[in-house]
Write a structure and sequence with these properties.
There is one protein chain. By secondary structure, the chain is an all-alpha fold. 73% of the residues lie in helices and 1% in strands. The protein has 28 helices and four strands. 30% of the residues are buried.
Amino acid sequence: MKKKKPKNNPFYSGSGFRILGIGKQEAIKYFFGGNATVAIIVMALIIGFLIYHSANFFPQYRSSLELYRKSGQEFVDYADEQLTAQKELKSLSTQARAYEIKERLGALYDVASVHSDFKAQVLAEISSERKNYKRVKSRLDNLKSSESPSADDLEEAEDDYQTARESLRDAAQIAVNNLDYSDLSDSLWATDNKYLDQIRNSIVENLLTGEKTNFLKEIETEEKKMTEQVDSLEFIQNLVQANQKFSQPIPAFERYVSSISKVASQNKAQAVNFVTAKARKEALEAKLAISSNEEEKERTRLEIKRILGTEPDYAKLNEPIYSSLDDYRKVAEDAMGNNKEAFALVPDVDEFQSKIARRKIDHISEIEETIDDLITTKREQMESWDHSVAYPITQAITGFFFGTKWITNSSWQDIYGILPLLTGSVAVAIIAVLIAIPFSVGGAIYVNRLATPAEQHIIKPFIEFIGAIPSIVLAFFGVVGLGTIIQEYSQSPWLSWIPGFPVEGRLTILNAGLLLALMSVPTIFTLCEDALNNVPKAYKEASLALGATKLQTVTKVILPSCASGIIAAVLLGFGRIIGETMVVLLVMGGRIAIPKSVTDPAHSMTGILAQEIGEVDEGSLHWGALFMVGLVLFVIALTLNYISQRILKKFTQHG
């Protein structure tokens, strides 16, 4: 006997309309039930797409680096790294002195900058009055210089001049009176209020006379006098001498690096000609085959003959580089000797009043501990360098994943190291999560368990509304608003205890982290609230029945019961943050280097993809590098989501 389908089955099609044996209810079942299959297919396509475009990256990169070695560029970069370290020491000592002078001069230091900035803004507002003034003044000057000017014309020109002058004065006075320190292009230039009126009057006078005012002359004289007083301090004199010692080896080092760079560049040109010879020959032969002009054919044949058919003799080409080692040893020994004397002259960090100057001195101390090892290591690499040693693909792989340089579109050599990008992404994501957790998790607990219904109807929509704000709007706010606020208030002595304060620039990891924290709050808040809702009501009722307060119930019963759900929410929020693009691209500063502080600028994986993907040729080495970055980012996001789902699954099973 045939078994009948139960009538209460929601997918039972009965005897209704059917197409190819599929009824309406079955079609609905297949449509919604196929979501998982579609998701798997889309995931597979994404992975396949990323792998397809990045699969050839490492072989290409190995070939590029092998050419980099054969041409001698690798040898040059060993020397250039030492020169860069030497220049950094010079720069740091120069900056330390400048910041200390700025700290000790106080408000006086920025008066000239404020004067110049205000003057530029006033000129933009009174351009028409100034043009008219110049025109009238020019006419008056021409009449005065003529042999026999008419008295009436001269009087008329004089009246016009006085009228234009007064008009210019009034317009300039109105424009400058509307300016205050909040209008500065750099808020850090804001100086003492006692100078404000004097600056305004000086600008008006300067615009009318075209000459430096007495006020500016007095400021410059006083600034020069105070700078000399700072420079006369013993520890500043020692710093200046150290700077001179750091600077002394640089010219000789630059001449050496420049000389071997020329050789390596010529070697690279020949190497590239040989590597691309086959492709160019094929292109010219194809051109020859379709050409009908005999003169053009002859030129094409000559071009084919000129193509380099034999591999360059790299041993001969690199002979000047090998023979330059004696010159290098002399330069390196001179640098190490000067550095030893310079480090002995660098003042103690406690001598400085400026916190930024202290930071620069600390950085010099860090370099002092490593520069001798750097020079020794690079010298050993240069002495043992051999252009003929093959470049293994394992070295290309480790160089990509652990390299600290990302140099693209370089006429010298493209270098792809993902570590600074990965560090920037992880650093900003960790900061954002650490800031977001108290607000999102705390907000979810309060709204779900402690707030009144009226508070719930106010707080929850506002938090969820944050998710509707476009990321580009938040990024714009970070660039023009939040960054300036952080930079300005970080100068306060009350905040000097915070690591990295005062902040030198507006675009930093901290700035981006704060914005990403705001963006992640709705995600973590919503998921945490779901986790709290999944805790059985019996737990709460039992706790309250035993005499626990609401707060005790939440902290000792509810939270332990949904801890895995909250952890999963945080991980999903972390995944949301690490995949964000616009904020990190515009607000983090874009410096490709491993950051030392949360107030340093940095770059990220998503930022580099958005910045460079539109500039590269499909199939190129740079193209493959970007897709490899995308693959790494995809794996990180997928891993975080997988861990989150596993935790949620465990939470559901035990909930």
